Amino acid sequence: MSLVTSLTTGAQVGALLPLLTAIVQRPHWSPRAKKIVAVAVAVAAGVVTVAATGGWQQFQHGSLTLATVIAVLTVSQSTYDLLWKPSQIAPVIERATTPTAVKASE
User: What global pTM score does this model have?
Assistant: First the structure.
């Protein structure tokens, strides 16, 4: 896998990742808790992206692995802040996927 492929794939995954993260997050969580979950999910998604695009042997190339993880993390945070949060799509997903018992206690 080349650096360009690594960055492109990481950016594609990162752009859609906030929508998947919103399924797990809850509206009543603190901003800090939401950030920790978002970063952890992005790092995990970066590792899975490396394995999916280059196989497990790809981890021998530390710079490509790191570039992919950083691309996923950076793009996921940027698209959340610039697109998914202002459009209210991610917050709507959070509310829609929150269990009813939690919604009632808010």
Answer: 0.83
